[in-house]
Design goal:
The chain is an alpha+beta fold and 209 residues long. It contains 7 helices and 6 strands. Strands 1, 2, 3, 4, 5 and 6 form a 6-stranded mixed beta sheet that branches.
Length: 209
């Protein structure tokens, strides 16, 4: 739907997933987001544009007060359960395939191919970091429970200890200790966490009312 400007100028239009939304009186970003949530309750805004330009994430979390924020709005939304489930499954797949990459990095460090080994290590750590962000997203949205049992909690403690050791030995350039952690500690952890993420995905549920 379109609201004409009070001064006879440019009208305002809001689209959510390609569908027009009733335009609120309050044309600040807060007012527009409230209208989006009323139109699509329980869904998560995953992309927002204002006058053809992406809305900064910080504006979505803490909207500025200027009104009108823009005249043309377009939003894409997603079901948070499906979004998180897909992200958890992708993380599970990435972790399942990580063991040989960790061992390859270890072998290069053991062979004094330091630059190549460190480059491989950067890719390995990126996978772990992305997996951490997925878990935090799932917990923040309340879509799935945290670690469900003592075994999972122990896996979390073991992982934190191993990744701390990776960063310590990288900083001190203790290549022997670093290669040992990559070759022996992390592969079983990545396999275990692949299973944990798959279980979390299968148990994903709607946010409790």
């Amino acid at each position: 739907m379109v609201r004409k400007a009070d001064d006879g100028g440019v009208s305002t239009r809001i689209l959510v997933d390609g569908q027009p939304v009733a335009v609120p009186v309050d044309l600040s970003l807060t007012g527009v987001l409230d209208a989006v949530r009323a139109h699509a309750p329980g869904r998560l805004v995953i992309q927002a544009e204002a006058d053809g330009v992406g809305v900064p994430p910080e504006h979505l979390s803490t909207p500025p007060g200027n009104s009108p924020y823009a005249r043309e709005f377009s939003f894409r939304t997603a079901d948070p359960v499906l979004l998180v489930r897909d992200a958890l499954l992708q993380a599970s797949d990435a972790l399942r395939d990580l063991a040989p990459r960790q061992k390859a990095a270890a072998e290069k460090l053991q062979a004094s191919e330091t630059a190549a080994g460190v480059a491989d290590l950067s890719d390995v750590l990126a996978v772990w970091e992305q997996s951490k962000q997925v878990l935090q997203l799932a917990q923040a949205l309340g879509v799935c429970d945290g670690m469900s049992n003592q075994e999972d909690a122990e896996a979390l403690t073991h992982l934190a200890r191993s990744l701390t050791e990776v960063r310590r030995t990288l900083q001190t350039q203790d290549w022997s200790a670093l290669s040992d952690t990559l070759a022996y500690d992390l592969p079983p952890l990545s396999a275990r966490w692949s299973v944990i993420f798959a279980n979390l995905a299968s148990n994903a549920r709607p946010v409790a009312a």
